[in-house]
Amino acid sequence: MNIHGFNKSTLLDYPRHLAATIFVGGCNMRCPFCHNASLVLRPYTQPIIPLEDILSYLEKRKNILEGVCITGGEPTLYDNLPDTIFKIKEIGLKVKLDTNGTNPVMIKDLTDKKLIDYVAMDIKNSKEKYKITAGNKDISMDNIHESISLLLSDIVDYEFRTTIVNELHTENDMRSIGEWIKGAKAYYLQPYADSDDVISSGFTTPSKETLISYKEMLSVYVKHVGIRGVD
Fold first, then answer.
1. Does residue 225 sit in helix, strand or coil?
2. Is the distance from CB of 13 to CB of 21 less than 8 angstroms?
């Protein structure tokens, strides 16, 4: 597993936990609004952090940290992800997985082995606009459906989340997502934020009012709808 970034302490990446965050390279999506272009498109240009160094740090901080968030890129592309998580769990820390949901077999394997404690799955857009928004016409919607179904079955604590982009998401799209994940325990909206490392430029951030209107509409479908990244 190629680790290209390590945040030693955060209160943002793992809800209600003080955590460290591991960033892996590579992704099977090309979301044009992605702000980790270097990790997705050019991971080979980024330094690799040895897992042993990270495990050593986690061991020293295990009485302070509560968990580790593994994000990317897309972590489930790595066959050795379970082994890596097992080593983290041996230290005594909880593990949160960020995923795009394209590998439901891996998600189920991790949950069956009780290797993950929390999953955050990105919902890119409505079914009709999913592949366009994901920047990959070859992704399997069956896999996305299966991952959503797995989480809705409550096999692990979870949340769904969507990065809202003015040019890509409409009220009808958000309503369609609500119907798709109906009954979910948690769904978070986060506004697109421009950066120097975005895959494609030209996108704009939705207003606070737009996000609030989406939240109110989605509350009909989901038990808890939250907005992140807005004051």
1. strand
2. yes
